[in-house]
Amino acid sequence: MSTSTSPIKNRICGTFMPVRDIERARDWYCKILGISETPEIMSGHLCPLPMQGAGLILDTMPMWGGKEPDGPPTYQSPAFMFATDDIESSYQFMKDNGVELVTGIENGHWFAFRDPDGNLLMVCK
């Protein structure tokens, strides 16, 4: 591999989240993340969410399995984590909102849950 300077930036600017129903996913993520404005759905399959830091883009992924009967493959291991300053309140909030919790609070620092499409995600302190 060459040691020359890469034109690719050392920064993640966004993560694509595979979803089956873009409107349902948008509404669920907005509720869970406290997003009060309703983000626009672009090209019928993309919905960039207004986030702090790296972006999160909901996508039915028509080119990557979204046209198949079961939709695009879901994340079976967390690809990223959502941040919190209060892990206990975050866990209770998810529980109160009927989110599928996969773990309890582990080591006082994190828990895992699934979105409505079955993607495995984490909240970490």
From TrEMBL:
Cross-referenced InterPro entries: Glyas_Bleomycin-R_OHBP_Dase, Glyas_Fos-R_dOase_dom, VOC_core
Q: Where is the VOC domain?
A: 11-125
Please verify whether the record's keywords include Transport.
Answer: no
Signal peptide range equals none
Which GO molecular function terms does the record list?
dioxygenase activity
Q: Which domain of life is it from?
A: Bacteria
Specify whether Oxidoreductase is a keyword of the entry: yes
User: What keywords appear on the UniProt entry?
Assistant: Dioxygenase, Oxidoreductase
Q: What is the name of the protein in this document?
A: Glyoxalase/bleomycin resistance/dioxygenase family protein
Q: What species does this protein belong to?
A: Paenibacillus agaridevorans
